[in-house]
Amino acid sequence: MGYQVGVTPLQMVTAISSVANGGQLVEPRVIRAIYHDNRRYAVQQKIVRRTISAETSATLTGIMESVVERGTGKLARIPGFTIAARPAPPRS
Questions:
Q1: What is the spatial distance between Cα 16 and Cα 83, in angstroms, rounded to a whole number?
Q2: How far is CA 40 from CA 34, 36, 85, in A?
Q3: What is the pTM of this model?
Q4: Fewest CB atoms within 10 A around its CB: which of 15, 41, 78, 92?
């Protein structure tokens, strides 16, 4: 039996979003804005901390984009958009 890492979907999305946000961990939020009396009040993003450098983030983003362009994620391509995906795990 192999080893596994147990993470929740929110933890996985937060980690990948940190890469997409230039290495900054942004606190997950459910709403973008609150409306009251016909006025919109934006809920500001809260940057928690830097998880990786901007250079590492750019490198990982390039790798994740290549997964869709030349790797196992070719079916995720959308014409006119740049798509990034995590590499498929190795088969056991």
A1: 13
A2: 6, 7, 34
A3: 0.70
A4: 92
Beta-strand relationship, 33-36 and 39-42: antiparallel
Residue 49 CA from chain centroid, whole number:
15
Residue 44 contacts residue 16 (beta carbons within 8 Å): no
Q: CA 69, CA 5: separation in Å to the nearest integer?
A: 28
| Coil, strand or helix at 91 | coil
pLDDT tens column, 26-81: 988 889 999 999 999 999 999 999 999 999 999 999 999 999 998 888 888 999 99
For residue 63, the surrounding DSSP H or E stretch is helix 54-70
User: In terms of Cα–Cα distance, which of 30, 21, 7 is closest to 50?
Assistant: 21
Beta bridge partners of 40: 35
- For tokens 């590492």, the residue is 56
Contacts (Cβ under 8 Å, ≥6 apart) of 21: 57
Encoding tokens for residue 56?
A: 């590492």
